[in-house]
Please model this.
Amino acid sequence: PCSNGLLDFAALPSFDAQQIDRAERSMWRYRSMLLPDGVEAISLGEGWTPLIGGQIDDRDIIFKVESQNPTGSFKDRGAALLVSVLKAAGASLIHDDSSGNAGTALAAYSARAGLRAKLFVPGYASPSKLNMIRLYGATLDAVEGPRSAATEASKAAAKLGDSVYASHIGHPFSVLAYRTIAYEIWEQLGQRAPTGIVAPLGHGSQVLGLMDGFRDLLTTGLIAHLPRVVGVQALACGPLLARWQGQPSSSEGSTLAEGIRIVNPIRAEALLDGLRECGGTIVGVSEEQIIDGLNKLGRLGLAVEPTCAVVWHGWQQVKDQFGPEATIVLSLTGAGSKTPQLDQLLR
Amino acid sequence: PCSNGLLDFAALPSFDAQQIDRAERSMWRYRSMLLPDGVEAISLGEGWTPLIGGQIDDRDIIFKVESQNPTGSFKDRGAALLVSVLKAAGASLIHDDSSGNAGTALAAYSARAGLRAKLFVPGYASPSKLNMIRLYGATLDAVEGPRSAATEASKAAAKLGDSVYASHIGHPFSVLAYRTIAYEIWEQLGQRAPTGIVAPLGHGSQVLGLMDGFRDLLTTGLIAHLPRVVGVQALACGPLLARWQGQPSSSEGSTLAEGIRIVNPIRAEALLDGLRECGGTIVGVSEEQIIDGLNKLGRLGLAVEPTCAVVWHGWQQVKDQFGPEATIVLSLTGAGSKTPQLDQLLR
Model:
């Protein structure tokens, strides 16, 4: 337990490249970093996603296509690991609060594991977003009020005892699982680190996992430097951007990038420390820039959700800070096929 | 050219396991079977999809998760190869007729290749299905009348000259690309063939590709027998089922399995011959069985579209023809996240 009530690991094994199962087509090629021997990995084929090249304004860019995970987002990695751990620990009923990618992923992996799952969702969540969760057989509990009301209901349920609170935020397994994105990028680049990585930033779980993963590789001497990580927030809801710039946070508005619409990010200190350590930064993009990025990525054959379309203009803001020879990875965290009212965003 | 106006290959290289690029995370690990040296492969990371185990009614089953392709269906393999060939041949503008997975895939790969694409679609196609095609930047041409009117418009456009008819049906590249599904299953099973494969059946392109691919492996002595392929049609539109059973085809109705709602399948003779050769068969499922299969697969953590949900009850119909030790692969051809009105199908 951390001082703020979150859980973290006391110790983890060192990264060992010899332990990579190179025949395994999923994130479980790094199984030795994720689970003790003998614990069953609950898998739908998550991870080992494509790393494909492209060009933006005559500059070479590399996309990590996390949208190609089983339920369409990088959250599948975290859900796979968390559900594996909870099942091994004897859970039969779990719950969490999310109406988005994390909830979809948890429902899918619970189904895969044969666990019952309950999702507390805001009462205002659109039915179309909840259909996938229902298809996976999870129970939905709509909670009236703001998003935080669903979290409170979820916490309260945990105290009743028969269900395990499978918080994708509070447990440290998601961030651990996201280290595999770093390992994969390293392998797929031919065992080297990129110069920079641009990723959406909400709670910061993915960014933390990326930084942790590359720190593992640095510690074991497999890379010579950490990539500079650029976290991109929506200007409409940018509490970490405000802190990074030393300003009071006043931006808690609505944004198309609903997956990173996080007013009170947790693990913020670790995140800001990590960004300073690697020479990274935080930038913000407008709603119009999100829409433009969505369409620009589409014209490259990449259909993503608005949440990760932030990386397009995020990259535009920092590109002059990287030389022309820099190896830049843009993380495409979620698929566009489930974007509501896509027709209104097409340009 | 074949007698019916379709195109086919005069000769193809033999399958050579030594040529597999085992470090490549996509169908291009079989590049030597697909493209001549020097031709650029247009790729979004298609293929090398997960093969994951599961259970249906206490019988072990293996799922080939084609829904995890870049645009959510196995059609990405065909589009990647076709667009690679057309780009190498100098095309700059291409067109096809499809409002479904094939059109989506062609639009995405055209964008990736920097080709302009036009899709002729039925006037009744739902706007939500066309949004992804628009996001990829393809031009849409809505054609009033039945589905066949879009095909006629597409053929007519080909005669005007400046655009290449990139028919995913008429060209033989799709079927060639689908051979890679067979190669992957063989590799992922530890270099052996399954006993049986159950797959949705419309025009039969995937089934033909699977049979061709395993025939390649048989010819080169890498497997000892062909898997028995079971094609599943919707009873509401089952012309190949009718022919298989020696009955006049009278079933041309509407079905939820819109991806296999094919009234006049082409390459039918080759398909029926192939099924006889491998000891396969064709079965049909009702609309209620499609809905049931969709929900049953969902409860395993697999969200698929109605078109490929046919495999659940297709398998139920043939399972007694396979012993308990049989290795059975169910092909999950398309993702469920784009299913229209999913809420009405949830049970």
